[in-house]
Structure formats: structure tokens, C-alpha cells
Amino acid sequence: MILAFITLGLFDIIDILLVALLLYQVYMLIRGTVAINIFVGLFLFYLMWLLVRALNMELLSSILGQFIGVGVIALIIVFQQEIRKFLLLLGSKYNINQKFTLENWFAFEDRGIREKEIVAILGACEHMAKSKTGALIVIAKNSDLQSYAETGQIVKARVSTSLLESIFFKNAPLHDGAVILANNRLLAARCILPVSDNTNIPGSLGLRHRAAIGMSQATDSHVITVSEETGNISYVMGGKIKVRISIPELRSFLEGDFAGFIH
Ligand SMILES: Nc1ncnc2c1ncn2[C@@H]1O[C@H](COP(=O)(O)OP(=O)(O)OP(=O)(O)O)[C@@H](O)[C@H]1O
Q1: Digit-coded pLDDT (tens) for 84-143
Q2: pLDDT tens digits for 132-190?
Q3: Which of 12, 49, 140, 237 could make an S-S bridge to 182, C-beta 3.0–4.6 Å?
Q4: Which GO terms describe its biological process (predicted)?
């Protein structure tokens, strides 16, 4: 009966597709976090309101409508963290300051890392894995990591195996936290990274690995971890972690992901 009154135009189809795309993006953003349960709850609540309205159940629809009326404010409060993460990702991907620097326009500097830096990282990771020295290395891609670098100690030094090893040496003053590599330089050490709240991460992975995953979700950077407990090397990108990788595997990941930057 109801369907007989529904007319579907081209714009309605575009509208539905856009809403589907939006919902998919929201799902991708909060997938694996506790926020997904809240989102599903709110979505069901909204569907119920649409249903009771369509069935002309006046009393129930006006009660639910009161909640829906303040729904946007409630959404902002409930998804405060996710909205912040989303805006941060959007802002750092399309950072205006970064796009209009002279370096970018005239390509004076490379964004990521080159072959020499890859060799230095591989050497350091190999030694640190053998000696079970914990390490957390962030490699910038397009996102601006300056705000993360400022949580630690700005270094701005040439990347070398010995520098990386001495930073992560157990009793060294800068060993805690992460190092950030950007523009072929070791930009900063002892940096604090955002920790992922993904509930699907195995319990065996502690804060170092969660911080690596969190950083790769918040930015487009790639992260290498060396476990202090096991000496295992992991490679993290786009919120996904590859655990227990070998040095040749790490080389092929780095060369593959930063191929555009190798000279
Ligand atoms: N948010 C963070 N940002 C940067 N570094 C962090 C963060 N959280 C933890 N770390 C680093 O990770 C170190 C070890 O943390 P933890 O033992 O919980 O990690 P893990 O994943 O179990 O790693 P490991 O296998 O090396 O023990 C900390 O001492 C610190 O240097």
C-alpha cells in the first residue's frame, strides 16, 4: 500500500547512493572500535522513528522525535573522538600550509625517504631485532606530522643506522616513544603517538603496537615497530599491521611504499 505512493527519481537514487557512501565512510572510520555499537544503536533508533512516523503512530513518533531533534548534538558528543580523528586526517592530508611551501612548488625536498635512508632503517632494525631493543619508527608520507613531532624532541638530523640505534638504546634519554622520519631527515624523537582503540587488536600486542596502528589510522604515515619482548619486526600502514616480518620483507615493503621517493 505504502509503496504505491513512492516515486523514485534520478536525484532520489543519487541521494540514496550518497547516503550509502557516507554511511560506509563512517563505518570504515569507526570499524573495530566501541563506537560502532553506539552507531548501530543510534541507526536502529532512527529507523524505528521513521517506521512509527510512516505508520502514523502519533504519540510514539512525537516522543522519539524529541530525541531525534537533539540527535545532532548527541552525535557530536558521543562521536567527539571520531569526529576529531576524521577532521585531523582530512586536515593533515590536505594541509594548506604544506601544499603552498616553496619546497613543494619547486620540489627542493623529497617528502618521504630515499634508498640511503631505507638502508639505514633496515640496518638498525636488524640489529635492534637481534638485541631485542624496542623501537617505534614513523615514516611520513603526505600527512604533516609536525604536531606529532612537537610532542617530543625535535632532532632534524641525517638518518643513519647508528643514530637510530643510539636513540632506541635502552638507557638513552630519547629511547621512550617514537621517532618520526620526514623529508629524508630524522625529524624528532621521543614523540607520543595516538593509541588505537580498535578492539580487534590481539591482546598480545601492547601499547607500542597500538600506538603504531593508531598513528597509521590518524595519518597516512607508515610505521615500523621492533618488539622489546620478542625482537619481532612489524610493519603498519592504514590501520593494518603485518607482524613478524623479515628484513627482506621489510625492504620490499619500504621500497614498494616509498618507491616514488627513491632516487
Ligand atoms: N602512545 C605512545 N606513543 C609513543 N610511544 C609509545 C606509546 N605507547 C607506548 N609507547 C612506547 O612503547 C613502549 C613499550 O610499550 P609496551 O610494552 O606496552 O608495548 P608492546 O606493544 O608490548 O611492545 P614490546 O613488544 O616492545 O613490549 C613504551 O615504553 C613507549 O616507549
Answers
A1: 767 766 665 555 555 455 555 444 445 567 888 999 999 999 999 999 999 999 999 888
A2: 999 999 999 888 888 899 999 999 999 999 999 999 998 889 999 999 999 889 999 99
A3: 140
A4: cAMP biosynthetic process
Q: Which residues line ligand 1 (CB under 6 A)?
A: 134, 136, 176-178, 192-193, 195, 205-209, 211, 227-229
In angstroms, the CA 103 to CA 101 distance is: 5
Quote the ligand 1 centre to 197 CA distance (angstroms).
15
Q: Cell numbers of 32, please?
A: 573495530
ipTM (interface pTM): 0.94
Closest CA relative to residue 88, chosen from 258, 223, 221: 221
Of 207, 209, 233, the residue with max ligand 1 atoms within 8 A of its CB, to mutate for a pocket test, comes to: 207
- The Cα 120–Cα 106 span in angstroms is 27
Atom 6 (ligand 1) nearest CA? 177
